[in-house]
Amino acid sequence: MDNDQPSDQPRFLMMTLRRKFPQLAQACALVGFILLGSYAAADTFDEKRTAMSSTVATQPEAAILDLLKAGLDEGKPTQAIAEARKWMRQNLPKNAMLLYYAARAAELSGDARGAAALYQQYLKKADPKAETTRLAVIAGHALLKDQLVDLSGAYSFNRGCLDRLAGNPAARQLNHWFLNEAIKRKDAVAVANRLHALIKSGLSNDLRITHYDTYFRWLLQSSNVYADQPGAVVSSDELVAACKRLVKAMTFDQESALRLDWAVSVRHYNLALSGIQAQKKKNNKKNQTAPEDGKPVAKVALPIAEAKALLAKYPHYAKWVQDGWAGGGNGRYYRGNVANYWTKDTDAKLAPIVAAAPKLSPMQLAELMQSWRDNYYGIREIRLMDIKAVRDYVNANPKQMNSRVGVILLEKPWSQLTFEQLQKLAPNLAQNASYKASIIRAAVAGGKDKNYDKAMTALVGPEAWRLPQHHDQRNALVHRYLKQYLGGKPSDQANKQWVALGGGISTVDAKKEATAAQRLAAFRKLWNDYKSPQPKIPSVRERLLKILPFTPEALPELLKDGSIDAQSIAKTILAKGLTGQDPVWKELETTKKVNVSTYAPGILYLAQRHAGGSISELKRRQPKKCVPHPLEPALRQSVANALRQNKLASWQVIAWVNTQFPENNAEQVKLAQELVKSPQWKTISSEARYAVRQWFERDVLTPAQVALVDAADPMVVCEDLLALVETEKDPSAKGKKNKKPKKDAADLTVEEKVAIAAEDVKIAVAALQTTIDRLRKSPVRINVPEKALENLVTLDSAIFSNPKSKELMLVLMDELKLATGTNNFGYRFIEAMIAKPDAIAIHRAAFFIWQQINRNHRSFPQTKQLMQSLVDTHPSAVSVMAGNALDAFARHRGHSYFKRDVDIPLMKALRGKAAMKMGLIVIPVPKGDPAYPVYQSQGDWISGNDDAAWDLLDENWDAFMPVYRQLSMAYLKWALTRVIYSRDEERQETLIKALIGWSAEDGTPLSLSERVEIEIAYGDIAMQRGQVREAHAIFSRIQNNEAYKEVHLRLV
Fold it and tell me: What sections of 646-780 are H helices per DSSP?
């Protein structure tokens, strides 16, 4: 029979009958009218089910939808989904709501995996604003993540379904989990796509700042790495395209958008030209051309244009762009084959950087020019002075060299210059701190006739302050080259002068063990000489830099000094690390080094290393480490001074934030608030603004932003529940009006007890309703604190039986899926459920009940008794409870509260009895039919009797294959697993090929997940047979199949 479109066959048949056999057609129509009329007249689920029992597959879609709704309303979801699955095996739903109600029925029947798959199908078609969409999003995520503990499945569900639903409140609540999970997996494409979807759905600036800036920042940082850095996000055409799409939408932060646009492009370009990209991942070559030699060449025009756009608005990123062209920085490793990409179009690459130079601050320009030195990037091919744009700028601005931070940049070695050229150069090197400046100026002092004595007098006199301390370096780097230039033999006087030069390696200006006063005095002596117009102390710069790392007392003076050199030295020693005599310096560990470029508070590092990220726990475990950073006061004063002088630098702000401590920080908070209100707030970098917001949080946020932060705080969201306790017993009540202490129950009259119960119900309903409303509106998904639920136990037990309060508890457990097992709340809830069984409530709370019993076992015996008592009256409730019990037993760790040889068989037996009672075990053939044992095997398997099921199937395998399409897919997967384990190659081959063929047919009833599982099983069979190459090909085909991209199984 052709089953491509089975749902159209009845209609086609009737049309044929009308045309060829009119009388027979009328008779069939009459029968159809009678059957449909009997269904329409059916009121209850059982009546509806009976009316369509023999014609389920040919029923109209509306009838199946109606059947599902009736099953849910009457507490019979297991029977409802069983009938619906029969229909869905032969029909493709057109109404998305059928998928939703089928998913809901599957969920309440205990089929979490099947329900998640159906919810996923529903969400493909769902209206983003519909209430059922919100419920389906929560259910699909929670079933996979919490109930099945399938993180890969939950991640795939979020990745595949929720970009389209980014504007849905429930979908937004899952973003934090999803984005954090994507970051763990280094799935930058998923992060970029989700952020883009969020922006397009209407992401407010306040919500972005308070909850999403971290993810935009991560995306930029993941691209701001060395070209071939191990462990970094893999660069791909897909990632570049996703980031480009995101950048166009980032109108709220042009700085970050332009940086991201450039970063992804330049890394992809560098990798493509270095040859690494082709080895790591096949490119679709959208941005590549194929030259004659067949090697791909990435186009450079795009990243050049992006660099130009970035530097036109934010010139201070000039060195960052230059580092990007060089492979990500000047490190020795992980830049790939730099020569392959740096040497292409260097003039065009550097032109925007040089054009930005005049717009830089003196310190930024100094840092850029430092990078133009030979060998800065550690690679022979990168010589900036060979680039015309750089050379022209240096030649046009020779005075840039005449400062302590200036760089000597020459087109050729100084020894190859004429005396006249050296003489012209020398005045521009008077303040330059390089030892090369001393050689050049000494050579000029020797005159055109190269007088050795004059040159040496200058070298050991006014030029000595730049020289290195070590005598070997003095000889190898200075005297040797001056001697070669002068060409003559030094006189005895010159030799004596050179040998007598002081300030050598044996000179110690201050020791680490010296007092603070002694070290500070040494610093001041050297510093005052160094910053004078003509320093006199030999090797003063090197000697100064040697004592600074152990003289933290000098930092305030450096920071107070507004000179470029002072600021540069302060920034350098902060990054390299300071230490002192105070014991606190030993406790700081690596946080002695203060990060001056990115947000990285030292106290957070120490808390993460020693206390799992908790500062309060760090204080308890390591009180000596949990102290304010000793450099914070100096940095705070520096920021305050720069703010007043309108000279604030981003690195100062970042360094200050990174030394913060969360206690006794009123002055710090005040300064941060002044900074945020200052006009300079917009001029500092986005990273500096991010650092301030991240650390000071609500102290620097607007009221609207604070409200969004509070809306994500479990203690605020659940404050009404937390406030049910008496204030004097629990300070977490947050100042709410609390209940008055109760009288002893023995002293109460009946009327008083009734009144108290009514009052407590009213209080519970109000607190629960407020909490639920806040949970629904929260920008993130929040788990209700255990304490909040436990506080309900302090109220009268009537709250657990009252319909209103009980329904709100079920909303927490079932709709929101945010209630977790607790010692007393869960026990009292189960106790009330046992006292007054409610089939629908049991379905809704089954997972919570067994989650609770797994944690606190007091209710276990009574729960078993309840289940046994409900088999005849509420078999569906018993079935779902038994299924959850078996799952709970499998999850339980530690001492078993259940008896494996008794309770597991009991639960399987209860599930089997319930299945029989519900009519789920039906054998559609007579007893003598060859297929009868096969259907009986399926029934045994449904009942939990796996061994008996396999014995029957094993004995009747020949009868199995002709009817396999009439059996449930779950049973077929079990049968396939058994034949794989039994290593019966003939049966493996027969069954797997039949299933693969079925799954490939047009209109196949098998879901994508089922098809993937079948193909994975095919690969497992190949592996079992030692066919590794074939297995690899199968698994690769699954992984690269675009049709399967949203099925999590292919990612496992």
Answer: 650-657, 666-677, 686-696, 703-710, 714-717, 719-722, 750-777
